[in-house]
Amino acid sequence: MNAPFPEPARKDGPRSLHQRILADIEGAILSGAWPPGTQIPFEQDLAARYGCSRMTVNKVMTRLVAAGLIERRRKAGTFVRHPHSRSAILEVVDVRREVEGLGLPYGFEILRRVLRRSTEAEGARLGLDAPVDLVEIASRHFAARHPFCLEERLISLKAVPEAAAESFGDLPPGAWLSARVPWSTAEHRIRAVGADAPVAAALMVPRGTPCLRIERRTWSAREPITLVFITYPGERHELVARFAPG
Amino acid sequence: MNAPFPEPARKDGPRSLHQRILADIEGAILSGAWPPGTQIPFEQDLAARYGCSRMTVNKVMTRLVAAGLIERRRKAGTFVRHPHSRSAILEVVDVRREVEGLGLPYGFEILRRVLRRSTEAEGARLGLDAPVDLVEIASRHFAARHPFCLEERLISLKAVPEAAAESFGDLPPGAWLSARVPWSTAEHRIRAVGADAPVAAALMVPRGTPCLRIERRTWSAREPITLVFITYPGERHELVARFAPG
DNA sequence: GAGTGGTCTAGACCACGAT
DNA sequence: TCGTGGTCTAGACCACTCA
How many residue pairs bridge chain A and chain B with CB atoms within 8 Å of each other? Predict the structure, then answer.
C-alpha cells in the first residue's frame, strides 16, 4: 500500500510548482494509480524529489486535505482517503445507510443479473464511442420488509472487469463499487415520474404513483464506470442537500 | 466599498493563527458586514494587524479564493465576490436563466403577495424561536407562454426589511434576493408529489400528475432569510448536478 | 523516544496591471 | 511606473502519535 513518486501528469499547462505537484498527486489518486489506503511519500521526500522546500509541498497537501482526497496522521504519514460523499444527495447511493439511519432493518435482493453488450442508447447515455461489455443488475432495497427503492444499474466491464465475476449476493452493487473504484466525476439527474407497470410491481404501489427517480453516472478519468437509476416510491421520500456558497 | 479590519469572531475556538484570520474574514463576509464588492485590506496591512508574516495571511487568502468567497487582482487588491452558485441544483433558483437556457422566451407573473406573521408550522420549518413578520409571494414562471413552474416563497422581514416595500413586478423574488442578500447556508429538499388542486390549476395539468418539488431554505449566519417551494410539472423536468469527490 | 505533520517566519524575486 | 498579489525559500519550533 505504499506509493512510488507520482508520474508527472502533462508537460504543458501548470505554471507554478505547487500546481504541478497538485496535478501529479491528484492525477495519481483519481486515475486509480494510488487506490484508497495508499500511503503517499512524506513531505520531505516529495520536497527533495521536486527540488523545492517543504513549505511548497505542504501547501499542496493542505489543499488535498481540504478537498477530502487524503488524510494525514502525525508520525504515521499521509494516506489516500476512501471514497466519500460530500452531501446527502450523493449518499443516496448507499441505500443501506439511508435505511439504517431511519432506524429500520435493512434488506436487499437481486432481481436480475445479466452480462451483455451495451445498446446504442446506453452508449449514448454513458458517453461511449464504441459498445462495451457490461453487467446489468436490477435489485430491490427493503426497509422493515417493505420495498424501499428499486435500483437498476449498468457497470462497464471495461472500467471494472472484476464485476463480471461478482454475484452481489452479500454486498449491494453500490457499496461494492464505492469500496473499490475511485471516481473523478459524478452526475445526478433527478426527476419525478409516474410508476409504470414494472416499477409499480417492484415497489408494490399503484400504477401512476409519483416516484422520485435519480439517474447517476460516474466516471473515472473520462472512463464511464456505472449508470444507475434509483426509484423511490411515493411522496414521502426526500433528497436533502446542504450547501455553503463556495 | 472599503472594509475596516474584520471584527474578531469568537475568543474561544480556533487554535492556529491562520484559522483565526480565516474565521474573522469569513465571518465578516457571511454576516453581511462586508457585502459583495467590498475591498478587503491588503495582505501587508492584515499581516501587520495580526502581527504575523505575509505568508500566513496569504495562505488564508488562497483558501478564500479557492472557496469562491473573494477575488483578487494584482495591483487593484482583494474584493468580496458577488453571490454565485456552485451547481445546477443551486441555479434552479434563477428560473429565468433556466428557461432562457432552453432557448424559450421567459415570462413571469405574481399570483399573490401578502404581508403577515409567520404561523407556528412555518416557524418550525424556518427554525425560528419566535414568530416573525414575513412576505408571502406566490408566482408563476412561464416558458413560451406555458406554465413552467410554480414558486411559493416566504421572506423574513427580520432578515430583509426592504422586502416589505418591494412589489416584485419587474424582478422575480429569487433574482431580487440573490442580488441583495449574502447567504451562508442553503438546504434543498427534493420530492416527487402528485399535483393537488391548486397546483394542478396553476400549472394547468391534471390532478395527480407527478411533479418535482424543491424546497429551499436559506440562512445568513443563523438568521433565516427565505423558504421557497418550486414545483415543476410532469416528468420532463430534470435537476442536474455534477460533482467531483471533495 | 523519534519522526511525522502543523505551523510560522522574514525575507526574496517576479509578473501583472492599474495609473 | 510601481504597488499589488503569486510564489518560493531555508530555516525553525512544537505537538502529536506511533513504535
Answer: 137
**First vs last C-alpha separation in chain A:** 34
Cβ–Cβ < 8 Å for B158, B140: no
- Residues A24-48: what's their mean pLDDT? 86
CATH class of the domain comprising B88-233 = alpha beta
Q: Which residues of B95-123 are buried (b: 16+ CB within 10 A; e: fewer)?
A: bbebbeeeeeebbbeeeebeeeebeeebb
The structure's pTM equals: 0.71
- Amino acid B143 reads A
DSSP helix/strand/coil, A206:
coil
CATH 3.40.1410.10 in chain B: give the residue spans. 88-233
Q: Which three cell numbers stand for residue A59?
A: 501547501
Q: Which residue is closest to C10 in terms of CA–C1' distance?
A: B53
Between the CA of residue B242 and those of A14, A89, A102, A164, what are the distances in Å? 24, 11, 27, 28
pLDDT for A246 beyond 50: no
- Within a 13 Å sphere around the CA of B82, how many CA atoms are in the beta-carbon half? 5
CA A31 to chain centre: 13
Residues of A within 8 A of B69 (CB-CB) are: 245-246
Question: What is the band of B130 on the pLDDT scale with cuts at 50, 70, 90?
Answer: confident
- Share above pLDDT 90 across residues of chain A, in percent, rounded to a whole number: 39
Chain region(s) in chain A for CATH 1.10.10.10: 17-80
Q: Which residues of B touch A185 (CB under 8 A)?
A: 242-244
Name the percent of chain A lying above pLDDT 70: 87
Fold of A17-80: Arc Repressor Mutant, subunit A (1.10.10)
Express each pLDDT in A3-27 by its tens digit: 777 766 554 455 688 888 888 888 8
Strand B185-194 relative to strand A106-117: parallel, antiparallel, unpaired?
unpaired
Cα-based torsion angle of the residue sequence B98, B101, B105, B107 in order, rounded to the nearest 10 degrees: 10
Q: Protein footprint on strand D: which nucleotides are under 7 Å from a CB?
A: 2-12, 15-19
As a whole number of angstroms, the distance between CA A193 and CA A243 comes to 26
Query: Contact, A45 vs A6, CB < 8 A?
Result: no
Residue B189 pLDDT exceeds 60: yes
- Give nucleotides in strand C with any atom < 7 A to a protein C-beta: 2-12, 15-19
For residue B109, give every residue at least 6 positions away whose Cβ sits within 8 Å of its Cβ, in sequence order, or none. B139, B140, B142
Q: For the segment B79-117, what is each residue's pLDDT rounded down to a tens digit?
A: 988 765 444 555 556 788 778 877 788 999 999 999 999
